[in-house]
């Protein structure tokens, strides 16, 4: 990956506020690569996304951006086997992300009030450079917090994609049967040819001849065993992925459903609060003047 926007010798204080947002470039490239839905290209896209995520995390760790627990999770080769530890880690990360989201939303709303455009950067107004730098740092910290889960999800999906490619790719159906052969007809021209045919039938081998050698039969049996083993491994992987999704790396079955219900409850509460703060018709600033 030939991408280097900042020097490895630069410190966070050396990077101007105008250039600070470009630290997000590798992260955005990773998100774009991971969003690929073409199953024939998805494996390569996930590998590219892993490179971009790790490059982004390395830059942020060097500049001391983000939480230390997120970098520790990325450095681990595998998830901790203790379900309680994984649950505590996910809860702590969720709380950090929620706090960052609230601060980012506040700063964006403040910027929109002062500038009229939350995506306008570097303009002078009541939204000064210090507030803009704080907003970018929070966005970087929020992106770092999402990288461990993204990397884990990609690493779990890649073996399934490799097995799918080994089977022949997406949508690969069973092999078509060979075309049926035409029946063989014996044309008898005269009586002597008929007698010759009778002699061949009388003096032929009394038992059916072998259609393949012992080596060919052994190769065929080994091939069938490999196919059965591949099907078994694929079925086991899908079952484990389904169970992990149901457990959601928690300590009880159905933890994912409880999490989704809790998130829906928070969303409904936020929407009710929004409706209370913004009653119907409050946004209509135009008056009917006759």
Automatic annotation (TrEMBL):
PANTHER family: IMMUNOGLOBULIN-BINDING PROTEIN 1. One of its GO terms (molecular function) is protein phosphatase 2A binding. One of its GO terms (biological process) is regulation of dephosphorylation. Pfam families: TAP42 (PF04177). InterPro entries: TAP42/TAP46-like_sf, TAP46-like. GO terms for cellular component: cytosol. This is Immunoglobulin-binding protein 1.
